[in-house]
Each structure stands twice: as C-alpha cells, then as structure tokens.
Amino acid sequence: MITASGKVGRVIATLRAQLRHWTVVVPLLAVVLLAMTWNRTLPGPVVAVVALFLAGAVLAAVHHAEVVAHKVGEPYGSLVLAVAVTVIEVALIVTLMISGGEKTQALARDTVFAAVMITCNGILGLSLLLGALRRGVAVFNPEGTGGALATVATLATLSLVVPTFTTSRPGPQFTPAQLAFAAVASLALYLLFVMVQTGRHRDYFLPVPHEDGTVTADEHADPPSTRAALASLGLLIVALVAVVGDAKTVSPTLEAGVAKANLPPSFVGVVIALLVLLPETLAAARAARRDRVQISLNLALGSAMASIGLTIPAIAVASIWLEGPLLLGLGGTEMALLALTAVAGVLTVVPGRATLLQGGVHLAILGAFVFLAASP
C-alpha cells in the first residue's frame, strides 16, 4: 500500500525527471528555431518566440555547465563554461566582420570592451553582493583572483588602449605587425594563466575557508557518470550556440528599438553582450548564493580573459580577409571607465574579503558604462 508521503515522493521524482528532460529538449528546439530564422526578417510574434527559447537555452546552459563542473571539479568547471561561451562568441564576431563591411570595423572592440565591463563589474559585483548578503563578508583567495585581474588589465590595455596611442597608422588601429604581436601576446598570456590555474597553483582558485575554518561543500551529492557528463557537455555547446545565434536573430528588432529610442547604434552591441553573457552571470550568481564566491570570481575574470585572449588572435587571422581598417582603440570615456574598473578591482581583491560596499561599487561602474553607452 502506497502512503501519502510515498505518493508525494513519486510526484517530486517525476517533476525532477521532467525538469531534466526540458534541459535536453529546449536547447535542441532552440537550435532548430535558429536554423529556421537565421538571416530572415521576422514578425513580432516570431521574435517573441525566439526570445522565449533564448531564455530557456540560457537556463539549460547553466544546468549543463554545473553538471560538467561537478564532474571535472574546479577550477576546470569554470574554465569549460568561460571558454565555450567565448569560442562561440568569437566565431559569431568573425563571421559578422567578414560579411558586414564598414559598419563592423569596430565590432570586435565594442564587443570585447562590453564583455570586460560586464564581467569585471557586473558579474564580479553581483557575486560579491550575494556572497556578502549570505555571510556578511565575501571571502576569496587574493593570490588567484589578483593574478587573474592583473592578466585581464594587461590584456585589455595592450589590445584596447595602446592602439589609440600608436602613430604608425592614423586612427585607433594597429599595423599588421603590431596586431600580430598583440595577438601572440594575448594568446600566450591566456594560455599561461590557464596553466597556472589548472597546474601547480590550482589551490589559488579553490574556495577558501571561512573565519570558522569551514569550507562550503558542493550541494550536489555524487558526481555524475562520465556518460552523463559528456552528454551535458554536448548539450552545453548546443545551448550556447542557441544563445549566441538567437541573440543575433533578435538583434534586428533590437536595432529597430534602439533607433526608435534615439540611442547610439553601438548600444545594440551592449544588449547583445548582456544576452550572450547571461549563462555565465546566472552560473556565477548561483555559485555565490551557495557561498562559493571564489568560483564566481573565476567565472567573471576567466570570461573577461578568454574574451580578449581568444578574440584578438581570431580577428588578427581574419584581418587577412577583412577589408578596410580594424578599429581597436578605445575613446577617452571608455578608457576612463576601464581605468576605474582596474583601480576598484585592485582595491577589492587585495584584502581577500569584500562587503556589500565593494559589490555595490562595481555594480555602479557597470551602471555608468551602460548609461554612457546609451548617452555618450
């Protein structure tokens, strides 16, 4: 005879199975929808459907990223999500630049800068805020986080600031030799960081003990099987393809809305960057709510680093086929925001502890970036 509690248990198990099922179905349907709508003019109702599946693909990507992360452990899990998102994003940028003509000459710069500001202020600030709300003080490893921040600052300055001040060519652009150097240096620094993060200094990127000596354990019970982890890895890639592709699909509607609102055309890139980085934002927020702030910071700074370290080499190779100048140098307002981000980041990271104030500071910088992008 089945008791009431047994029936409730079976219902809960069924609901969980259905939830796992939708994380498989939604990404696949989102990719099918992407194939049907790519490079087509869409009516409003279809755009709404694409946006709905975009949101579902984001949630599915977060779920599968957590499964993979739990199987491979940290910091490999954060690395998988950051690199997967960035590789697909880079492919989209290069494709648009090759086929977009003059209007995409600054696309790489705008996208990379938006990604740096969103990750180093938005994701990082939100993670610190959520961590501090739970414990009063968010704790993390200053050695690992500081090294990551230094790498991001170096990559951003070399790739986005220096072109504004070089004199070999007019305008904020590199010569081919300068671009090649920046590409090699960016890729080398990123690979060196990955070696440090996953090698002899791996412990710098793991959650640190709290004041009472405890370390918050992962909420998952047993690690998934290898088969389940590989399936989630494949579905993660499918979901991320859907996220980036569907974001591009809804971009004409965004462009029309931006034009009606009398906002700068470059603001569309900010909105698309926000959509593309949603999986990492949600994953970082969930980690911070579980009192694993270090994992959230790994995602934030790792995503910024991957965005620069992989995009610049990719566009350096693509520049062989690109026509017209490749604009990489930032303007004065953007450089001021980047410098403010670096200074605030250093002061936040050095103590290895952060309160609500530090989280609020970084979110305020992100707010300033978004506002000035809309009203330059």
From TrEMBL:
Domain Sodium/calcium exchanger membrane region as annotated: residue spans: 47-198, 232-372
Coiled coil spans: none
Primary site of residence: membrane
Membrane topology summary: Multi-pass membrane protein
Protein localization: Membrane
A Gene Ontology term for the protein's cellular component: plasma membrane
UniProt xrefs under InterPro entries: Alkaline_pH_Ca-Antiporter, NaCa_Exmemb
Gene Ontology MF term list: potassium:proton antiporter activity; sodium:proton antiporter activity
Transmembrane segments: 21-38, 44-64, 76-100, 112-133, 145-165, 177-196, 228-245, 265-285, 297-321, 327-349, 356-374
One family name in Pfam for this protein: Na_Ca_ex
Record bears the keyword Transmembrane helix: yes
Keywords assigned: Membrane, Transmembrane, Transmembrane helix
Protein name, UniProt field: Ionic transporter y4hA
